[in-house]
Amino acid sequence: MASNPPAQCCTVGVKHEGEPTGSTIKIGSIETYVAEATGNTVHKDVAILYLPDVIGIWQNSKLMADQFAANGYYTVIPDLFNGDAMGLNRPDNFDFMSWLTKGTGGNNPHTVKEVDVIVEKAIEFLKGKGFKKIGAVGYCFGAKYVVRFMPKGRGIDVGYLAHPSFVEEEELKAISGPLSIAAAETDSIFPAEKRHKSEGILIETKQPYQINLFSGVSHGFSVRCDTSVKVEKFAKEQAFLQAVTWFDEHLI
Fold first, then answer.
1. Which residues contact 43 (CB under 8 A, 6 or more apart)?
2. What residues are paired with 159 via a beta bridge?
3. Is the pTM value of this prediction over 0.85?
4. By C-alpha distance, which of 250, 162, 172 is closest to 205?
5. Residue 212 · residue 242 · CB < 8 Å
6. Is the pLDDT assigned to residue 15 strictly greater than 80?
7. What are the beta bridge partners of residue 210?
C-alpha cells in the first residue's frame, strides 16, 4: 500500500470562516457542490473534480472549491458518501472501519464499489458539459479515487493529492498523467516510508510528479488546520497554491 487506511485523525480539524458562494445541484441522485469559474482568466475547456475527505461537502471544502473557481476553474464536489459523511472531530472510540464498510445505518457502505460509481457519474457530468480535460484534487479519503481514475481513459488527466490515504501501490503504478502530492511532516497515514515508496513508484511511471513535504503540520492540514496558528496557515495556503500551480502548468 502506498498510503495507510484512514483513521480517527482523518476527522480532526477546525471549521474555517467564510461564506461559500457556490450552489448545490444533483447529478442524478448525487448531491454536488458547484463553484462557477470566475476571475480575470476563466479556463473554459477544463474543470476540477474535488474529491473530499470523510467530512465531505461542508464549510471548508466549499470554501476551497470557491478558491479554485476564483482561479478560473469550474469546480465540483460530489457527495462521495451518499448523504452519510462524517461530522468533524469524532470521539476516540468511533468505529471508523465499521462506518467505512457499512455506513452509519449499516446499509450504506463507502467502499470502492460504491464510490467508484459516484466518481464515474461526476466525470460523465463534466464531460457532458463540454470540458475537454479534467483535473482532480483528492484530500485524504478522496485521494485514492483521484489515483484510481488516472489510468488512460478513466477520465482524470491531471491529479493533486493532499495527505492521501488508502492508495494501493498498484493503483499508483497505473497512473498515466501528472501527479502532485502535498504531505505533512506528522502523518501516520502517509508516513515517511510510504512517501519514499510512492516516490519510487512515481519515478517508474515516467509521469511528471511532485511531492512537497510541509513541516510543523499533521494529517488533514490542507483542509482542516487551525489557521490561527501561523505555521499551519502558511502550509495550508502553500498546499493550495501548489495545486493551482500544478493545474496551471499541466491542465491548461
1. 37, 72, 73, 74, 251, 252
2. 136, 179
3. yes
4. 172
5. yes
6. no
7. 180
User: Contact at 8 Å (CB) between 164 and 143?
Assistant: yes
3-state secondary structure 133-198: EEEEEEECHHHHHHHHCCCCCCCCCEEEEECCCCCCHHHHHCCCCCEEEEEEEECCCCCHHHHHHH
Q: Would you call 248 a catalytic residue per the annotation?
A: no
Helices and strands (DSSP H and E) totals, the chain? 8, 8
| 43 noted as active-site residue | no
Give, rounded to a whole angstrom, the gap between the first and last alpha carbons of the chain: 31
Note the pLDDT tens digit of each residue in 120-166: 999 999 999 999 999 999 999 999 999 999 999 999 999 999 999 99
Query: Around Cβ 185, how many Cβ atoms within 10 Å?
Result: 14
Q: Which of 140, 163, 225, 250 is catalytic?
A: 140
Q: Which residue has the higher pLDDT, 177 or 93?
A: 177
Question: Which one from 9, 157, 187, 250 is the annotated catalytic residue?
Answer: 187
Position 7 pLDDT exceeds 80: no
- The residue among 208, 85, 201 whose CA lies nearest residue 135 is 208
The one-letter code for the residue type at 244 is V
Length of the chain: 252
95 in catalytic set: no
Residue 138 grid coordinates:
483528492
Longest dimension (CA), the chain: 48
Taking the C-alpha atoms of residue 136 and residue 161, their distance in angstroms, rounded to an integer, is 8
